[in-house]
Design brief:
With 110 residues, the protein is mainly alpha-helical. The chain contains 5 helices and 2 strands. Helix 4 packs across helix 5. 10% of the residues are buried.
């Protein structure tokens, strides 16, 4: 439902990016992560989009801060600097924007 609303709001998607969780000590978190990946893959296929692009948490942190083990507060502060005037609701929202920033750079999108 949220993906549908976002797609409508932005006149569709061209590509989907997400933060890959390589390891979780919590079985349920790992299961939910895999379900999310399935939804994103299905969404991409139905929308005739490229396969979703993932970035690992460590890679994203290193790209944004220079340190692969940066904590959540540091990531939030970097997001605020990149998106001046924007205040994230939480670290998840900051991470989502930073994944988009990473994707734009990786794909050479202006």
């Amino acid at each position: 439902d949220n993906l549908c609303r976002l797609s409508d709001r932005f006149n569709g998607f061209q590509i989907i990016g997400w933060e890959f969780v390589g390891f979780s000590k919590f079985t349920m978190a790992h299961a939910v992560h895999n379900q999310l990946l399935g939804v994103l893959q299905l969404w991409s296929k139905r929308g005739q989009l490229p396969a979703p692009i993932s970035v690992g948490a460590t890679e994203l942190k290193k790209y944004i801060t220079g340190k692969g083990n940066a904590d959540k507060d540091v990531m939030i502060e970097h997001a605020k600097k990149l998106f001046v005037g924007w205040e994230p609701k939480d670290h998840n929202e900051a991470d989502a924007r930073l994944v988009g920033w990473w994707m734009k750079d990786k794909l050479g999108i202006k």
